[in-house]
Amino acid sequence: MTAPDLILTNATVVTVDDADTIAEAVAVTAGTITAVGSATEVGAFAGPGTEVVDLGGRTVVPGFVDAHSHVSMGAPFIKHAALTTPPVGGTRTVGDILAKLHEAKDRNDPAPGEYVIGWGYYPEAMDDDGELTAEILDREFPDHRVAVVHVSAHGGVVNTRVLEEHGYVPGVADPDGGTIVRVPGTDRPNGVLWEGAWMPLAFSLLDYGRGEFDAMLAEYARWGMTTVQDGAATWPQVEKVRGFAAEGALPVDVRSLVIFTELDEAVASGLVDTTVGGHTVQGVKLILDGSPQGKTANVTQEYLTGGPSGEQHWHGIANIDQPTSDAIVTTAYRNGVQVFAHCNGDGAVDQLLAAHRAAKAAGATPPGRTVPIHSQVMRLDQLDDYVAEGFEPSMFTVHTLLFGDTHLANFGRERAFGISPMRSAIDRGLRPSNHSDYPVTPIDPLLLLWSSVSRTSTGGVVLGEDQRVTPLEGLRALTINAAYEHRTEGDRGSIEVGKLGDLVVLSDNPLEVDVDAIRDIQVLRTIKRGVTVHEAS
């Protein structure tokens, strides 16, 4: 055996292999794991050029795989105003929002007419009512376009200049699959847009260069992520990332999902399932509904609090109709393209299942592991459908912390307590992953892990004790299960000989500390293919 380039020893190595082996050391040679075992066994392979790192009992886990996030959204947001509320950020009032927007404007110095942008707006968690309108933004920023992105990324608030440029003038009808919120008692848009009224504008905001992209990947590496998904990229964004990767291997692997409206272009390119420099074109992303915290998730049982514009008997929004989703899934399956679909509400899950069955009835063969992303306000019988149809859900348990109290108000205890039912999925033999959906929620995988084990809201309510998982199950959801959903379990997701040397050194063992201490565990080192891409100072 060639002497390893790197040996991590005197550690607790949580392999998450099939036997859940705990080892003491791991060796990496030319980017690949070549030995896992006791400190003595692995240490015997060291040569004169081997870097031997004594971890003093620290814990090593597989490189985290963010099963669903948004590189092409996060990269441009790096330089804009972060408006997140506690416990993520410090925005508490409309005054805070305006101050942070002004700080971003001063920092970025946009020319007159260019955009001032903020993201992470969540009025329900603010100390005042959080109401932001075009009128307020007009007054504060008379010379610029302004867009404030809701925390869900499925809606936002813009100033009058932006409204008028998009044809959102008094009397205009809501677009299909979208909502334009009006000034009470009038037909005049108040600046708040949702789903189909918001998305075309939102994608126009996502321009970024190499500097922002590199900063974004460095942020993922800081949190121990070694593989991440770009979860809804336009074809130009896919080509941009491919170009960056062609210049030199990326420090974190990026797996792009092309937005469903550009599936034909992706298929024609011949780039689906190809990899260059750590960038892979993974599959297609459907966006079937919205967000439960934004009241746009498509649910079969109505919201208890009405709609975003005060609608009664509100069930959310279906972003595309059934025939359209049937056609997209059929095209994807016929071309061997893996399907990922944003499904927050049970109505959206029903729509995906129907599209899948319609594609099969049309003679298209599923390529396997269709992934319903989020799987939040869903019915447990739908998990049985997942099993029957070969679906694997990617769940979003940090919602129980960040938005749990809002979900209780919107849906009541029974539905809110069943948000992202990971325990029930595992008990049925499914292999659910967990994801950050960054920039919707923080990248932090230890917070994700804690949320799957604790399921406790900011208000202290346990959202479904019977859906809690063990720390090991939670860790598997962030490593081997996520790799399995990406169809990459053969080369990553666990610490085994022959797999990539993607490793994370943690300050403590998440399998042994008290549950509430999991979220405080620190990432000390991130290793990608045997090379350290982040080390804590």
From TrEMBL:
Organism superkingdom: Bacteria
Residue span(s) of domain Amidohydrolase: 51-534
GO MF annotation list: hydrolase activity, acting on carbon-nitrogen (but not peptide) bonds
Membrane-spanning parts: none
Protein name: Amidohydrolase 3 domain-containing protein
The organism of origin for this protein: Krasilnikoviella flava
